[in-house]
Design goal:
This protein has 7 helices and 7 strands; from the N terminus they run E-H-E-H-E-H-E-H-E-H-E-H-H-E. By secondary structure, the protein is an alpha/beta fold. The protein has one domain (12-251): 3-Layer(aba) Sandwich (Rossmann fold), CATH 3.40.50.
Length: 257
């Protein structure tokens, strides 16, 4: 019998930005599927507890590395350390992101603008910059980036956030073309409203600006972070072996309107 194309057991996986929300849900899903996992995030002490909890729950190999995704040296060292632990790299997910302030563009500070690009865009760029050489050594691999429906539409009062997600989509599509012949696939998920701290804080902040509007969800509900994991595991597996450069919407029909 042919191997199950959805099987990722034993795959060497690095997930950047797995402390909470979608990243944490995906970390648990990777470990539950039997992947060997390194999570990278903001706090070594809290992350060690997180990794141990997931490992105990799933009986998979899970460890944690602290990193600031804005810092090239720390990102390079983190990826090397993760690869040393895993003995190579098969799957990488770049999930770190922040919402930034909610306000009209004329009120958006330059420091905040530069910081949101540093986290959301530079972090994704640095992730791929240092992950892809290891995937090339493996001869095969999958990269999954975190975009948003804000990568596919506009989003008033958080314009720089939307701009970062457009940039992540552009990076994803372009890098996918660079490594397509090397059997490395690069895709992104584009979540719609997901019940996370990021979404809750962003919605509250937008409402405080007095902005009224935004896309409704045809499925008439907000999703749970766990509902993102099916697409992520599919993109990580051989079941999506002919999928690259895709921005996969998981949004209850938001962008179909």
């Amino acid at each position: 019998m042919d191997q199950n194309p959805f099987d990722i057991a034993g795959r060497r996986t690095l997930l950047v930005g797995g402390d909470s929300g979608i990243g944490l849900a995906c970390a648990k899903a990777f470990a539950s599927a039997g992947a060997r996992l390194v999570i990278a995030g903001l706090s070594q002490s809290e992350g060690d507890k997180l990794a141990k909890g997931i490992a105990d729950e799933t009986s998979s190999e899970v460890s944690y590395l602290e990193v600031d995704v804005r810092d090239e040296g720390r990102m390079a060292s983190m990826v090397d350390a993760a690869v040393e632990r895993l003995g190579g790299l098969d799957i990488a997910m770049n999930n770190a992101g922040i919402p930034g302030p909610s306000c009209a563009i004329q009120d958006y500070g330059l420091e905040e603008f530069e910081n949101i690009f540093a986290v959301n865009v530079r972090g994704t760029y640095l992730g791929m910059k240092y992950q892809i050489p290891h995937l090339l050594k493996s001869g095969k691999g999958s990269v999954i980036n975190l975009a948003s429906t804000a990568a596919l539409t506009g989003l008033a009062m958080v314009a720089p956030y939307a701009a970062t997600k457009h940039a992540v989509a552009g990076l994803t599509k372009s890098v996918a073309l660079e490594v397509a012949k090397d059997n490395i696939r690069v895709n992104a998920i584009a979540p719609g409203p997901v019940l996370t701290e990021l979404m809750t804080s962003m919605r509250a902040a937008r409402q405080q600006t007095g902005f009224v509007g935004g896309a409704s969800v045809p499925m008439d509900r907000i999703s749970d972070p766990d509902e993102m994991t099916g697409a992520v595991l599919w993109l990580a597996s051989d079941a999506s072996s002919f999928v690259t450069g895709a921005i996969v919407s998981i949004d209850g029909g938001v962008v179909a309107q």
